[in-house]
Amino acid sequence: MSLPAATDPKTFHFRNLHPRIFIGTASDRYAGWIGQIYSQARYEGRITKRTKVIAGKNFIEEVLPLDSVEEYFEHFSVLEIDFTFYRLLLDENGRPTPNYQVLNTYSQHLKAGDRIILKAPQIITAQKIHRGDRYVDNESYLNPKIFTEQYYVPAAKMLGSKLSGIIFEQEYQRLQDRTPVNAMTRELDDFFREIPKDTRYHLELRTDLYLRDQVFEVLKKYGVGQVLSHWTWLPPLRKQLAKASGRFFNGGGECVIRLMTPLGMRYEDAYAKAHPFDRPIEGMRQPEMVQETVEIVKAAVEGVSVNLLINNRAGGNAPLLAREIAEKLMGKKEPPARRQPGLWDR
């Protein structure tokens, strides 16, 4: 694999790793990445703090300003923006929401070649949503009109060619709440038939039951990619791809791999372990995840482009995990066992 001179995993520069490999992260602006992705002096006095409540416990997050995305893209070639998961871009009267304003600010700091992958709002993808102290049925689930008018049209207009993908993430379905596979297939078919035709769609199903041939046939029919997600209750990446017989369905010739959490570890536990996201966490990163990711990426680029999106919760610090994977993709030999931690040194 020949590499442009600008590519150097040691300094966290992955942008030109390979013409068909785009490495990035799930979210950005983490102050814990200063010294890796971000420069200390550039954000002096501009770091803000916010409180995030996870499982009843308060965590303080230190956040960089929005213009830090310019420096982010000096290192990475793709960014997953996930705050759009929590609110539509336009309200029911067509007025811009706060999420629209934030995304618009992001767009003003992007340059040619920067790639953004957005998460579609949960109001579209979730069968149940949280209201007060309980989950209730979502009346807007897979509503093509709401998706098109209040999300897709403004997002596509705002980002243009820099919008390289939209992820539809469906929440994990508990056994008592699961829709029969045939019904799920019909619902997805109806939805993708009605929304604007686009080759940038990808579907992440977090319930193993739905990784079935009839669902994959719907994805193939509409050119929607299957997101391979290393996530709590899903099978390993290799098995997810095997369920689709190794096929990639996206009509634009792209696939998305998301490294989100260790298998078997809940979101709240992974978050608590990884916070404040500035270092690798001993025993958190699963070696099989790294190995399978490398194998799948190397095989996939023979036919499709790969967007590899890495979350801090997959090992403690996304840039360090990206570096390890990039070095393996480049064919760097493993160091002796006693030197193994060196891959994660800053």
CATH H-level superfamily title: Protein of unknown function UPF0759
The SSE string, one letter per element, is EEEHEHEHEEHEHEHEEHEHHEH
Number of helices: 10
Radius of gyration: 19 Å
Strand content: 15-25%
The counted number of beta strands is 13
Q: Which fold does the CATH topology refer to?
A: TIM Barrel
User: What share of the residues lie within helices?
Assistant: 25-40%
The CATH first-level class comes to Alpha Beta
Runs in which pLDDT lies below 50 for 5 or more consecutive residues are: 1-5, 336-346
The general outline is globular
* Secondary-structure class: alpha/beta
Spatial order of strands in the largest sheet = 10-9-8-5-4-1-13-12-11
How is the topology of this model organized?
Blueprint: E1 21-26, E2 48-54, E3 57-63, H1 69-75, E4 78-81, H2 98-107, E5 115-119, H3 122-125, E6 128-131, E7 134-137, H4 144-159, E8 163-170, H5 181-194, E9 201-205, H6 213-222, E10 225-226, E11 228-230, H7 237-243, E12 254-259, H8 267-274, H9 287-300, E13 305-310, H10 318-329
Parallel strand pairs: 1-4, 1-13, 4-5, 5-8, 8-9, 9-10, 11-12, 12-13
Antiparallel strand pairs: 2-3, 6-7
Helix pairs in contact: 2-4, 5-6, 9-10
